[in-house]
Design a protein that fits this description.
By secondary structure, the protein is an alpha+beta fold. It is about 35% helix and about 30% strand. The strands form three sheets. The protein has a 15-stranded antiparallel beta sheet that branches. Strand 21 and strand 22 form a beta hairpin. The protein starts with a helix and ends with a helix. About 30% of the residues are buried.
C-alpha cells in the first residue's frame, strides 16, 4: 500500500510538472510589438469618434525634465515628477535597507508609475503635467491632495489626482479624461507598471519576487524566470481586483476600486524590464463631459494587519504557500503575544511553550508507546527469528503481539509527524514575515541581531544540537543496535541543517527540545 501511494504521488507530481512545462509556459511574440499590443486588448468599435492622439513632440520630451513635488507623512516620503505626472519615489520611514545606523530608507519605486495609455496610440510618460502644488508638503493627520493636468490632444485633457492618507500606506489615485470637444469620443484606456528584473537577476529561491495579481479569488504569483525572453508574455483575464509587484517583504500594487472584467498582460519588454499592462477599459465620453476611474495605490510592507485593514483582498498577498493554513494562525498568535511582551524573541519562546502544552497528551502517548516497544523487544526478536522466511506470518504475529500488549507501533511518531508541518510553517513565517525583519533579540550578554537571519555566532544551532543529543539519549531505545547508532547521528545532521536557518526558528526548536527533555525527565521519574 505504501509503495502504491508513493507511486501515485510521484505520478501526480510528474503530471503537474509536464502541464506547467508544456501548457502554462508564457508565449513569445512573433509579431511586431505594435501588432501584439493591439491583440492583447479588446477591440472596441462604438459609433462614437475614435480620436487619434499623437505622442508629445520629441523636442519637448528632450528639453524638459519636469519638476519634483514631495509629500511627507509619518509613514512615507513620496515624490512625484511633472514628466508623466507619476510617482518616482516612495520611501518607507519605518524600514531601512539594512541594520546599519546610516542605512538608507527602503524605496519601493524603481521605475516611475503609473503610466496611462489611450487607444494604444498615446502614452503619457513624456507628457509634461501642470501640478496643483509645488515644493514639499507634509501632514500628520489631514489628507494631502495633488492634481496633475496636461493636454493630450486638442480638447482632451488628462487629470491625475493623488490623495495621500497620513495614517496608511495607501494613496488614492483617480484618472480623469476630460472631453471638451463637440464629439462623443470612444477610447480604450489602459494602465502600465514596470519593474526592473534583469535577465541575470538571481531572485530568492525561498521567497517569491515578481508580478502578482488577484484574479477573482485566486492569487496569481508569476515567476519572472518564465519570461526570460524579450517579448515573452502571459495574459490573465477575469475580474482583476488588484495587480502589481512584490518581493519578500514589500508590495507595490494598484487596486481598482470597482473591479471590471479585463485582462492583465505580464511581458518582458527588454532585457531589464518586466511590464504589467492593465486593460484596456472601453469608455465613451460625451461632449463637454469626462470619464473618471478611481484606484488605490498601495506601496508598503506585507504586514498582515496592514494588508487586512487596507481591504480589497490585499491580505492574500501575504501567502506562505502550502503551509499557509498553519503559518497564518501561528503568525497571528505570535503577534498577539508580542502585544504583551514587546519582544519577538520572548514571543517565540512563549509560543513554543504553548505548542508544547498543546502537544503534551500526544507526547505522553508517544513515550508510553516507546516504553512498551522497549519491553517487548526481546519477544519481537524471537518472532523475527522464528518467521524470518515467512514475512506475512511474521507481520501477523507482530500485530498480535502489539494487540496483546496494547501497543501502537506508530504512537512514537505522532508528535514528530505533527511537529514537521509546524516546523515548516514556522520556517516560512520566520523567513518571510516582515515583523521579524531586522528584529534583534538580546540573550545572556550576547545578542541575535536579526531573528529572520541566521545566528552569526552559531551559538543557538550548537545549543540546539546538544539538546537534540540529550533528548536522543533520554528517549527509550527501540530497534536494533545499528538503527540506534544511526539515530545518534541525527543531532549532528540537525545542527548542520539549522546553521543557515533563521535564528528565530532555531530558538523555537531549541526551546522545544529543552521542554521535551524536562517532560521526559518528569515522565521517567513518574514511571519509575
Amino acid at each position: 500500500m505504501e509503495k502504491k501511494t508513493l507511486l501515485a504521488i510521484i505520478i501526480s507530481i510528474a503530471i503537474l510538472l509536464i502541464w506547467d512545462l508544456f501548457f502554462i509556459q508564457p508565449r513569445v511574440e512573433k509579431e511586431t510589438p505594435d501588432v501584439a499590443r493591439q491583440e492583447e486588448t479588446t477591440d472596441v468599435k462604438p459609433a462614437a469618434t475614435v480620436l487619434k492622439i499623437q505622442q508629445p513632440e520629441a523636442e519637448t520630451a528632450l528639453t524638459e525634465d519636469g519638476e519634483s513635488i514631495v509629500m511627507e507623512t509619518p509613514l512615507i516620503r513620496a515624490v512625484w515628477n511633472t514628466r508623466g505626472g507619476r510617482l518616482t519615489s516612495v520611501q518607507l520611514k519605518e524600514y531601512k535597507e539594512s541594520m546599519e545606523e546610516d542605512s538608507a530608507l527602503v524605496d519601493i519605486i524603481k521605475t516611475p508609475m503609473p503610466n496611462l495609455s489611450l487607444n494604444e496610440q498615446f502614452q503619457d510618460d513624456n507628457l509634461i503635467f501642470q501640478a496643483s502644488e509645488k515644493g514639499t508638503l507634509s501632514s500628520q493627520e489631514d489628507p494631502l491632495t495633488l492634481t496633475m493636468s496636461a493636454q493630450a490632444a486638442q480638447g482632451i485633457i488628462i487629470h491625475k489626482v493623488y490623495t495621500v492618507d497620513p495614517g496608511s500606506y495607501s494613496i488614492g489615485y483617480s484618472t480623469i479624461i476630460e472631453n471638451s470637444t463637440d464629439q462623443r469620443l470612444a477610447m480604450n484606456i489602459s494602465m502600465q507598471m514596470n519593474e526592473i528584473y534583469p535577465l541575470d537577476d538571481k531572485s530568492s529561491r525561498y521567497a517569491f519576487e515578481g508580478p502578482v495579481l488577484l484574479n477573482g479569488k485566486r492569487l496569481e504569483e508569476f515567476k519572472i524566470s518564465k519570461v526570460k525572453k524579450v517579448g515573452g508574455y502571459r495574459n490573465f483575464t477575469g475580474e482583476v481586483k488588484w495587480f502589481g509587484f512584490e518581493d519578500k517583504y514589500f508590495l507595490k500594487t494598484i487596486i481598482p476600486k470597482t473591479p471590471e472584467e479585463t485582462s492583465v498582460t505580464i511581458k518582458r519588454i527588454d532585457e531589464n524590464t518586466i511590464s504589467l499592462h492593465y486593460g484596456a477599459l472601453a469608455a465613451e465620453i460625451e461632449p463637454k463631459s469626462s470619464y473618471e476611474k478611481d484606484y488605490l495605490i498601495f506601496i508598503g510592507p506585507k504586514e498582515l494587519e496592514t494588508l487586512k485593514s487596507t481591504g480589497y483582498g490585499l491580505r492574500k498577498a501575504l501567502d506562505f504557500g502550502f503551509f499557509d493554513i498553519i503559518a497564518k494562525p501561528l503568525l497571528i498568535a505570535m503577534n498577539w503575544i508580542y502585544s504583551f511582551t514587546n519582544s519577538y524573541g520572548l514571543s517565540i519562546i512563549l509560543l513554543t511553550i504553548i505548542i508544547k502544552i498543546f502537544l503534551y497528551p500526544l507526547t505522553l502517548k508517544s513515550f508510553t508507546s516507546m516504553k512498551g516497544l522497549q519491553k517487548v523487544q526481546p519477544l519481537m526478536k524471537e518472532i523475527q527469528a522464528q518467521y524470518k522466511d515467512d514475512k506475512q506470518k511474521m507481520n501477523q504475529e507482530m500485530m498480535k503481539l502489539y494487540s496483546e500488549h496494547k501497543i501502537n507501533p506508530m504512537g512514537g511518531c505522532l508528535p514528530m509527524l505533527l511537529q514537521i508541518p509546524i516546523l515548516f510553517a514556522l520556517y516560512k513565517v520566520f523567513f518571510s514575515a516582515i515583523e521579524l525583519r531586522h528584529t534583534p533579540f538580546y540573550i545572556v550578554g550576547t545578542w541575535l541581531p536579526d531573528l529572520s537571519a541566521k545566528d552569526p555566532y552559531f551559538i543557538t544551532p550548537i545549543l540546539m544540537g546538544l539538546s537534540q543529543f540529550i533528548m536522543q539519549k533520554m528517549t527509550p531505545a527501540t530497534g536494533d543496535a545499528t538503527q540506534q547508532k544511526v539515530m545518534l547521528f541525527m543531532p549532528v545532521f540537525f545542527t548542520i541543517l539549522f546553521l543557515s536557518f533563521p535564528s528565530g526558528l532555531v530558538i523555537y526548536w531549541l526551546i522545544s527540545n529543552v521542554l521535551s527533555i524536562l517532560q521526559q525527565a518528569y515522565i521517567n521519574r513518574k514511571d519509575s
